Amino acid sequence: MAKTNFENLEVYRLSERLADGIxxxxxxxxxxxxxxxxxxxxxxxxxxxxxxxxxxxxxSHADNKRFVRTARGSLNETQHFLRRSYRRKLLTTAQxxxxxxxxxxxxxxxxxxxxxxxxxPEQTE
Length: 125
Known about the structure:
The chain has helices spanning 10-26, 31-57, 61-87, 93-116. It has 4 helices and no strands. The chain has one domain (7-116): Up-down Bundle (de novo design (two linked rop proteins)), CATH 1.20.1440.60.
């Protein structure tokens, strides 16, 4: 399967890394934690990349920007649930040390990507 334009974006690949890392962590939680915080954090993290992908597929720069802003909101939601998870002792310090650098890199990358939309000609395959 050929890669689409969004799959070539570093910001998208970073969002996948975060979502997959969160999935791996949540998979080890007990049933109560999974069905409360777990499902919400996985959905929020998955939504970051999904919104990047959907924005790329839209026909205008304005639509793309709107979806990237939604992705930023999903990142904030993910951060909220990471904080809740840590306070509730669902995340270990080692897990936080693995996920935090990805979160810290993703926020400015999303902002930079948002600023770049419309500055460069569209690339086609």
